[in-house]
Structures are given as structure tokens and as C-alpha cells.
Design goal:
The chain is an alpha/beta fold and 684 residues long. 18% of the residues lie in helices and 21% in strands.
């Protein structure tokens, strides 16, 4: 059959190695995998046509193993789309670089099987200008995870931009102010969020939930195509490229989550990652699912130097115990989430685990530390609910994990009681301090910095509504929390000793008179590991890290007290002429928690309030005041100066204090141990 409008096209057998629709020098190659005895047709459509105008049977002469391929010389595809028909069913090409017919997220499937079609790559000739990847090392990375649609769906952007790649471009100034340098996107490739309805076979049918939406996107996907419903423009290729270019110009790297179920073709999965790196300049991938060919990905030459995040891998076997020039693999650290959540809620016997999590940062790979992500409570819900509340999912609250290691601070859910709300903010500040003052890569789940809530839902996989979207009213309601997070991120970035590119040895291996990292407690140089202990102090010697100008970093002391009462922690002695000054206190809600030049000075010990994290910095003692002869009024005590090596970074100037109304009558905080949990009842 002649191809209308393409009279000069010559049809021959194609290359089975190039799955999908691939442009060659003088035509297009089509290849798809199906059973050996399958009846396969290639269907061509005009863009405005309702049905295919051309069908080609791919018989035995087009088959190699299970791959059916055809080459069409001199085919003009400018106004064409395509599909395959396999054993009578219209099928999309798993390797298609573009999908049309699913422009609206969550729209029900059309009864017309030809409505959804595959398109051709249109990204050739895109002007990347002077774009260059930031190539952020794991040691410097501040990772921020977002859902493309839900992140901006309730923002104050123009309606057309909400929930799109273009909408994320508008968020760049906010991320820069927050200190984010790497963004991770939950599945942003094409996936079918609504299942295509099929007639039940025989007398057996499965009763499913009506109109359920796969909001997150974890499942089978069309891994080569940007999701059309995440686009504000008609051209998804251009919009995604525009987003990456804008990210890179702002110094922000982009990581993509790629989920491959067990049945995924490993070679197709590998090629998908290569495709996004080569054509879209994506900086790295978080690879998930039982079908992820991790060993194959890590050994691939084209992906060499690309950052790969995964739940775990045998790096000793992969690298054969050879030291790598650069860390390119990082493990998502679920253990950090579990241990730090338990420490936050004051469980006993957590100090040894917390000590390990704080320092864990292997030489051959990075670790991604996180306390919250999409799978579980948000940070606000972690301190507001003892139990999951997933009733809106339609599964009788039986879905989602029941072990959340959360504590509601005395009342289940939202509360108007001031002392409850203040306790929750202290807990959230302490959680951010745990995350940002541990070695390894901190991952912030988008919205946690403004107290976003999912109403206690810890499995919002189907909630394409305000439950699953970010509530940006938190910018105003939780302004003090946001200010604290900004300064905590800035403090981490200002001190390289807090984010080393190699593991700390807890030894004085440079002859500086102090180990690089040491742990302390109620006695200096002694950390109480007993099961009743809920406090730990760590000192970092800045001489083991270099600032941008080549000078050594400062001495820092971070004290964690998760007893429900104030405790005193002993401070190790500093070199002659130096003293400890308080930089930050998560328990102080009268301000953003930072003190600038007004920090209190300590020598031998520091009092740390209940469920509080404090940071002290080693600074030079002020010069002694000279005595003046003759008459005159005695001078006032001099204001302490931060001049010299101990100076705080310039962005730690104290901002205007945030007024916090006086709490109701002081309520004693109860321990969060399982035996003393308030179980949703009011405490005090």
C-alpha cells in the first residue's frame, strides 16, 4: 500500500536494535517488541485524523526474535503520528518520545482507541545557549524533592502555569533564597494516571475503586516522553529543555525519579536514562523498582559521571575496592529516617544509632539522609499525628505504613492551643537541625519548610487534590519556621566541616590537637550510651575542612537534648584565646533561632532546653579592656566581637524578631515513650 503524501517512501526491513521510532539519515526506523507469533501492524495517522490512514503488517520478514522492525526511507513525519496494533489491540510505543491525547491530568479515557497516539522527537536544533551543568558534589548538595503537579497547583502563579514544568521555573528564586542547589522530580515522564477500562472476561470481574488516580506515577511508564499534562505549552520537548536550562543557569541541578517494575526490559531502562541525559541534559537519576538494572546502569560508559541514587548497592563489588576519583552513586538512607524519628520523639536507647547516622558518609558513595518523603507523613504531620488517617483513599484506612515513629505532642491533629503549636514548631526545627547537621546529603521534602500538611494521610498516592498538593498559605502562617530553615541551610553551607566529601575518622590524623569529629555528653569527651540517655553532643574541628579561600573552618559544637527537661552538657576546651558562643537554639521561638553577634558565651558547659538542638561556634575572646588613668566614668562592658577567624557568616545578621503570644499555663511535656504516649488525648 502506498503511503499518501509520501509517494517516494521505500519500505524495507528495519534495525531491531533501535526500539521506538528513530530518525536515521534518510528516513525513520520503527521497532517494537511482541511475542514471536503476534500479529503486529504499524499504524500511521495524520495529526488531525480520527483513524489511521495507513496500516502495514509486520510479518516474518520484519521479525528478528521478538523484535518487529521496519525502515521507511524518505518518510516525512512533520504532520504524522503513529501507534501499533498487536493482536487486535491498539498499543502505544513503550519507547515513544512524545504522547498526544492525554493533555489533561486525570481525564477519563476516551472510548476511541485511536485518541491517544505516539509522536516523533522534535528536539533537534534546540538552542541550549551557554547552559552548563552545575555538577554539584554530594558533599555540597542540598536536595529538594517535589511533585511537578502538586508543588505549584495551589501557588499564586497564573492558572496556566500551575502544576507544570514552566511553573517550576517560576519557583527558582524561592529555591535560591532557601539555599537549594539540587531538585529531584517525582516521575515526570509519561505515565497513565487513569487505567484504561477493559471489559471483564467471562463471569469474573474485579471491583476497583471508581476514578482512582495514580497521582504519584509509580508504575509502568512511557519512559522517553515528558508528561504532556505537566506542560503549559504544546511542545513538551521544548518546555522540559527550557526548565533544565533555567535550572542550570541558576546553579540548580535536576535529578529525575525513574521507577521500573519487575517486568521492565533492562535494556530499555538503560536506554531511557541515556536518552534523558543526552537529549535533556538531566544531571542524575533516582532509580527505583524491582526491574531497575542498577549494575548495568553503574557500568555504562555513557552514564559515567552521572549521579545515580538508589536504595542500595554493593559498591565493594562494583568498584572492586578501588578508590573512586568522584562519588557518583548515593544510597537513599531509610535507616536515617527511622532512627532520627525515634530520637526526635524521645525513644530510649537511640544514642548509639544516632551517633552512627550523624557521621555516616562513606568514601566510595554518598548517602541521602531524609526524615520525610512522599511515602509517609509530612514533617508537620509527623509532629501532629500518632496514627495514619488515610480514610480519603477509600481503602478503610488499611493502606499505608502503620509504623510512623511519630508523636502528636499531646493532641491528635490540628490544635488551637498555643503551647501545643509551639511544641510542634520546636520539634520541626529540631528535625531540620538533625537533618542539616549530619554528614551526608540532606533531602528536604518540598513543603516541609512551610509546615505543609496532608491531614494525617501517610499514603497520598491517589490524592490529586489539596491533600496531596502544597498549601502555600504556609508562607505566611509559618514564616518563622521558614526563616529558621533558610538560616539553618545557610549555616550548613557556610561551614564545610558540616558536609565533608569523605568519611570523618574521629581521630587527630592531621596533628591538629583535636580529632576531626568527637562525641560528648554530660562529661566532655564521654558520650553516655546507656539506654536511658537521650542526649548527645558533637564537636567538629574546622581545621580538617577548607573554606573557599583555603583557610580552615571553625570549631563547631552541636548539642542534641531530647529529654523532656533541661540538661547541662559539658563543653570541651578550645585552644587558648578562644571561647564558645551560641549561634543557634531550636527551642527559642522568640526569634528565628539565630543570634548573630548577640550569642551568649560559654566556657565549661551549656544548658540545653528540653527537646532542643543548639549550635555553638568557637570564636576569639575579645581583647581585654585597657584601664584609663584619671577621672571619668567607667566604660560599659564591651560588645563581643566576631572579628577574625571565628566570625559568623555575613548572612547571620539577626532579623526582626517574630512575636510569639504567651503560651497558656505552662504544661509539663510528657515523654514520648510508648508507655506514656497520650494517644490522641489532651496532655497536661
Amino acid at each position: 500500500m502506498a503511503i499518501p503524501g509520501n509517494k517516494s517512501v521505500v519500505v524495507t526491513s528495519g534495525s531491531p536494535l533501535l526500539l521506538g521510532a528513530s530518525q536515521m539519515i534518510d528516513g525513520y526506523n520503527f521497532a517494537v517488541e511482541a511475542d514471536e507469533d503476534a500479529k503486529v501492524f504499524l499504524l500511521l495517522y495524520r495529526k488531525n485524523g480520527k483513524e489511521p490512514f495507513y496500516e502495514l503488517l509486520l510479518d516474518e520478514k520484519y521479525r528478528t526474535g521478538r523484535i518487529f522492525s521496519v525502515f521507511m526511507k524518505k518518510l516525512n513525519v512533520n504532520s504524522l503520528e503513529y501507534n501499533f496494533r498487536i493482536n487486535g489491540e491498539i498499543c502505544l510505543d513503550p519507547c515513544a518520545s512524545r504522547i498526544s491525547g492525554r493533555e489533561h491530568f486525570g481525564a477519563p479515557w476516551d472510548t476511541d482507541p485511536h485518541k491517544v497516539r505516539c509522536g516523533f522527537w522534535s528536539g533537534e536544533g534546540y538552542d541550549w545557549e551557554d547552559e552548563k551543568s552545575p555538577e554539584t558534589d554530594f558533599g555540597d548538595m542540598i536536595l529538594y524533592k517535589v511533585h511537578v503537579r502538586g508543588y505549584t497547583k495551589q501557588s499564586k502563579l497564573p492558572a496556566k502555569l500551575r502544576g507544570t514544568f514552566e511553573g517550576l521555573i517560576q519557583m527558582i528564586p524561592y529555591w535560591q533564597e532557601l539555599g537549594i542547589n539540587t531538585v529531584e522530580l517525582m516521575p515526570a515522564y509519561e505515565f497513565m494516571e487513569i487505567s484504561r477500562q477493559k471489559e471483564p472476561e467471562g463471569l469474573v470481574s474485579t471491583k476497583g475503586k471508581k476514578d482512582e488516580v495514580n497521582y504519584w506515577g509509580y508504575g509502568n511508564g512511557l519512559y522517553f516522553a515528558p508528561k504532556r499534562s505537566y506542560c503549559a505549552m504544546k511542545d513538551p520537548h521544548r518546555e522540559f529543555c527550557d526548565m533544565i536550562k533555567a535550572f542550570h543557569k541558576a546553579g540548580i541541578s535536576c535529578m529525575m525519579e525513574m521507577y521500573f517494575p519487575a517486568e521492565a526490559n533492562p535494556l530499555m531502562a538503560l536506554r531511557a536514562l541515556q536518552f534523558w541525559k543526552q537529549n535533556y541534559h538531566v544531571d542524575g537519576f533516582h532509580v527505583l523498582g524491582a526491574g531497575a538494572p542498577l549494575a548495568l546502569i553503574m557500568k555504562d560508559g555513557l552514564l559515567a559521571g552521572t549521579k545515580i541514587l538508589a536504595d542500595g548497592m554493593d559498591t565493594a563489588t562494583l568498584y572492586k575496592n578501588q578508590k573512586q576519583k568522584k562519588r557518583c552513586f548515593a544510597e537513599y538512607n531509610l535507616g536515617f529516617l527511622q532512627d532520627m524519628r525515634r530520637f526526635l520523639k524521645s525513644d530510649e536507647d537511640m544514642v548509639p544509632a544516632v551517633q552512627y547516622r550523624i557521621r555516616h558518609n562513606p568514601d566510595d558513595h554518598g548517602v541521602i539522609n531524609y526524615i520525610t518523603c512522599q511515602d509517609g507523613f509530612t514533617l508537620n504531620d509527623l509532629v501532629s499525628y500518632n496514627y495514619k488517617h488515610n480514610e480519603a483513599n477509600g481503602e478503610g484506612n488499611n493502606d499505608g505504613c502503620s509504623y510512623n515513629y511519630s508523636w502528636n505532642c499531646g493532641i491528635e491533629g490540628p490544635s488551637r492551643k498555643q503551647w501545643i503549636r509551639q511544641m510542634r514548631e520546636r520539634q520541626m526545627r529540631a528535625a531540620f537541625a538533625m537533618l542539616l547537621f549530619s554528614q551526608g546529603v540532606p533531602m528536604i521534602y518540598g513543603g516541609d519548610e512551610i509546615g505543609n500538611s496532608q491531614e494525617g494521610n501517610n499514603n497520598a498516592y491517589c490524592q490529586d487534590n489539596p491533600i496531596g498538593w502544597i498549601d502555600w498559605r504556609g508562607l505566611r502562617k509559618n514564616a518563622s519556621m521558614l526563616a529558621f530553615v533558610k538560616k539553618t541551610v545557610a549555616l550548613r553551607k557556610a561551614h564545610p566541616v558540616l558536609h565533608m566529601n569523605e568519611s570523618m575518622k574521629e581521630a587527630d590524623y592531621l596533628g591538629k590537637g583535636f580529632p576531626d569529629l568527637s562525641f560528648h555528653g554530660e562529661r566532655a569527651w564521654f558520650c553516655n550510651m546507656e539506654n536511658t540517655s537521650r542526649m548527645i553532643g558533637m564537636m567538629l574541628c574546622g581545621e580538617y575542612a577548607r573554606q573557599a579561600d583555603g583557610t580552615g573552618d571553625d570549631f563547631l559544637y552541636v548539642g542534641f537534648n531530647f529529654h523532656w527537661e533541661t540538661r547541662s552538657m559539658a563543653l570541651p576546651n578550645l585552644p587558648e584565646g578562644m571561647e564558645w558562643k551560641k549561634v543557634m537554639d531550636t527551642g527559642d521561638l522568640t526569634c528565628d533561632g539565630f543570634y548573630g553577634e548577640n550569642g551568649q558565651v560559654y566556657e565549661r558547659s551549656v544548658e540545653i532546653g528540653p527537646r532542643t538542638v543548639v549550635v555553638l561556634q568557637g570564636v576569639k575572646k575579645p581583647e581585654p579592656e585597657k584601664k584609663h588613668k584619671g577621672k571619668g566614668k567607667k566604660s560599659e562592658n564591651p560588645v563581643l566581637s566576631d572579628a577574625g577567624k571565628g566570625a559568623l557568616p555575613g548572612n547571620f545578621v539577626k532579623e526582626e524578631s517574630v512575636e510569639i503570644p504567651a503560651a497558656d499555663e505552662a504544661k509539663p511535656e510528657k515523654p514520648a515513650d510508648s508507655a506514656e504516649n497520650v494517644n490522641g488525648k489532651e496532655a497536661g
